Amino acid sequence: MGLFDQFLDVIEWTEFRDNMLFWKWPNDEIKKGSKLIIRPGQNAIFMYNGAVEGVFQQEGRYEVESDIIPLLSTLKGFKFGFNSGLRAEVLFVNMKEITCKWGTKNEIYIPTPSLPGGLPIRAFGTFNCHIDRYDVFVNKIAGIRDSFTVEDVRDRIMSQTDQLLMKWISKEGRDMFNLQANAKEIAGGICGDLDQEMSQIGIRISGFAIASVSYPEEVQAMVNKAASQSMVGDVNKYQQIAMADALASGKGGAAADMAGMSVGMMMGQQMVQNMQGQNQQPSQSQQPQAAAGQNAPKFCPNCGAPAGGGKFCSNCGQQLIK
């Protein structure tokens, strides 16, 4: 390598990472013979005196003097001197869509009439973002920073998520104890608001998803109990099932013993009721026979033999009961 080659620059995004949206090439002077390398998903923006001179989007390797400068409006006639270079800035922008996780740092309290202090919840999910308008992004961000990452976007998102969750969850008709059922609709509303806000710095929020909504343990226990009762449909049945579960598991100590006694008492009462029903049925069927017996004569009117309660006389065959 010659002495002259040591001063040549290779303009490329050497610190490229998927979570980085923007990076400024650290040198402010481009030397003669320099080369530009653009990788897939990158755009290279040339700036001169604070204004955007040109944007290069096609990946590849370019000679700055012959391939780049002739396309720059203000610098078309620029000629490199032997010891002087081009004082210009090169900004690299990551144009790929990036998926990032979000989550509430603390519980947020959703207003609800049944809970004066609000319903505490946590929520987690993902959002998708990419640079949509590089001109706005450069003016608002690139002019004052050397890099911009997804974490910077996340910080802006998280600063608004709590309020937007409260806004869209509080819409009329929401089941506060089953917010997951409305997660798609809630997420769509939040996505639209975030996209409008982030467009001010040239970033597009193309997707927002709520993966889960969680409640404190005591609230979740109440929700689970209410769901179980609604499935059973009757409190007595719910208690019977609970006692049966305690007996089947063999756990619960005194509670299980009490449950066993209650089940035993209920079974005994059921057996007594069944026996009483069976005893009542024969007595009712015997009533016609008893009534018929009361109308029969004690002695046969033909031969005087004792009737014995029969329909015919056992001595002469005379009909006794008609």
Uncertain regions spanning at least 5 consecutive residues = 1-7
Give, in spatial order, the strands making up the sheet with the most strands: 5-4-7-2-11
SSE pattern, N- to C-terminal: EEEEEEHEEEEHEHHEHHH
Number of strands: 12
Biggest sheet descriptor: 5 strands, antiparallel
Structural class: alpha+beta
Q: What is the first-to-last residue Cα distance?
A: 139 Å
- Sum up the overall morphology in one term: rod-shaped
Descriptive overview:
With 322 residues, this protein is an alpha+beta fold. The protein has helices spanning 64-68, 134-142, 150-169, 183-198, 217-232, 235-249, 254-295; strands spanning 10-11, 20-24, 35-38, 42-48, 51-56, 60-63, 89-94, 98-103, 108-112, 115-131, 147-149, 203-214. The protein folds into three domains: 8-94, no CATH class; 98-220, Tetrahydropterin Synthase, Chain A, CATH 3.30.479.30; 234-271. Helix 3 packs across helix 4 and helix 6 packs across helix 7. The longest helix has 42 residues, at 254-295.
Q: What key attributes describe this structure?
A:
single chain; 322 residues; alpha+beta; Tetrahydropterin Synthase, Chain A; 3 domains; five-stranded antiparallel β-sheet; four-stranded antiparallel β-sheet; 7 helices; 12 strands; 38% helix; rod-shaped
